[in-house]
Amino acid sequence: MVWTGVTTTGTVSVSITGPGTVSNGQFSTYGLFSFSGRFDTPASASGTYSFSNYPLSYPILFPPYICNIHLGQNGLWTAYLP
Fold first, then answer.
1. pLDDT tens for residues 8-61?
2. Structural domain count of the chain
3. What DSSP letter does each residue of 32-82 carry, written as one string?
4. 34 lies in some domain
5. Phi, psi of 40 (to 5 degrees)
6. Is 49 within the bounds of a domain?
């Protein structure tokens, strides 16, 4: 079944392993999910992230179909200690 103009929303939560080594306050990891960043201060960090072609399947209740999509996104992130 093929259709166009379908819109869906949702939340996908994925855990990945850390970047490993931190060198000169910078860190990164690359793969299906990629991110890089640096410690801006002892209590904050910032950087970029991206992922592409992340597969996701979800049911459409009537008729009983499965919708298969691939997600992609990139952007900026920040983190702060309270």
1. 667 777 777 777 788 999 999 888 888 899 999 999 999 999 988 888 887 777
2. 1
3. SEEEEEEEEETTEEEEEEEEEEEEEEEEETTTTEEEEEEEEEEEEEEEE--
4. yes
5. -80, -35
6. yes
